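ok so I'm stuck.
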Amino acid sequence: MRPINLTEPVPSEFKLFKPHQWPLFMLGFRPFFLLAGLWSVLAILLWQFILNGTLSWQAQIPATLWHAHEMIFGFASAVAIGFLLTAAQTWTGVPGLSGKGLITLSAIWVSCRAIFFFYADNQLLLLLGQIFFWLFAIAYLSHMLVSSASKHNYIMIVVLALLTLFNSAFLMSTWLGEYSFARLFTQLAVLGFMLLIGIIGGRVIPFFTARGLNRDEQVKTPKLDKLLLLFSLLAMTGFASIKLFSLDINVGLVLLPAATLHLTRTILWFDKGVFKVPLLWSLHLGYFLSAVGILFLAFSYLTGQINPADALHLITIGGIGLMILAMMARVSLGHTGRALKPANMVAWAFAFIALSALVRSFMPIVYSPHLAWNISAYLWVVGFAIFLWFYTPILMKKRVDGRRG
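replied:
not stuck anymore, here's the structure
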C-alpha cells in the first residue's frame, strides 16, 4: 500500500462533471470514512485552538458542547452510517446507497458541520439538518433490511433511532439553554454507541480473529451477547431515569452489569496470536478499553474520586475512537478488494489513539489536566492523519478486483 502521491495523473475513472459515477460514491463506507477521518483531525485541531485561546469562540452554546456534539454526532455517526450502509449490502444482498443518493446524504452531513461552526446559534436549522441526515440514513437502511426480511438486523434501526432521539434532545436542550440536559444526552449517546459496538463487535471481532489467525472455529457467546444487549438497554434506561428524575439510586450501579459483561467477552475472545496482527490487536484493545471505560465511569459515580469526564474519554477515545479506526482500516481494504495487510505505519496510528485515550483519562488524575488534554489531542490528530495519508487514495479509487463497491 502506498501513501498519497500528488504527482500522479488524475485517473480516468475520475469524471469531473459526473461525481455520482466517482468511485468515492460507490458505497457508503467510502465518503463517510473519508469525511470522518478529515473531520476527526480538523475538529480536534479547532478544539485545541479554542481550548488554548488561539481561536475565539463566539457562539452562545458552550464550546465544550460543540466539541462533544461534533465528535459524537458528527465524527462517530458518520462512521456508523457509512459502515451500516455498507454492511447491510452484505447482510441482505440489496444494493447499498450509492451515486446521487450517497452524494446527497454526504452533503447533508457536511452542511450540518458547517452550520454548527459558522451558525452555531441557529439551533433550529441545525436540528432540522441533523434530523434529516438521520432519517435519510435510517430510511434507506430500513428499506434494505425490511425488503430482505433481515429481522436479525432490525436492532440496528432501533439503535439509530435512539441516537437520533439523543441528538435531537441535545439540540433542543442547547436551543433552550438547558446545557446540563445537553450534557446528559451526549452521555446517553456514548452509551448508545457502546450498545452498537457491543452488537457489531460481538459479530465481527470473533469472526475476524478466527479468519486472521486461521483458526478452524470462532469463539461464539450467544447467551452472553443477549444478556449484554439487555443490560446495555437497561443501563441507558436507568442512566436516563436517574438523571432526569433525580432518583435516589447511584448511577454507577446501573452501569456495572454492562461493564462486567463487556469485560467477560474481551477475556473469552482473546487469543495471544492477535498481538502479531495489527488489524486484530487494535480491535481487541479498543473493545477492552471501552469495557474498562464503562467500569471506570461506574466507579466515578460510586466513589466520587474520579472525574466522570475522564472516564467518558476512555470510552470515547480508547473504545469508540480506536474501534472506529481499526474497523475503517480493515473495511476499507476488504471492500476495495485489497489484501488485509495495512502499511506498517497504520499500526502506529492505532498505538497513538490508544495512547491518546490513556493520557486523556489518567494523566489528569495525577498531573496538569490542561497539558493532558493537549497531548491527547495531538496524539489523536497524528493517528488519524496517518489513516488519511494511506487510505485516502484507497477510498477514492475503484476496487482492484473490478467488482462494484
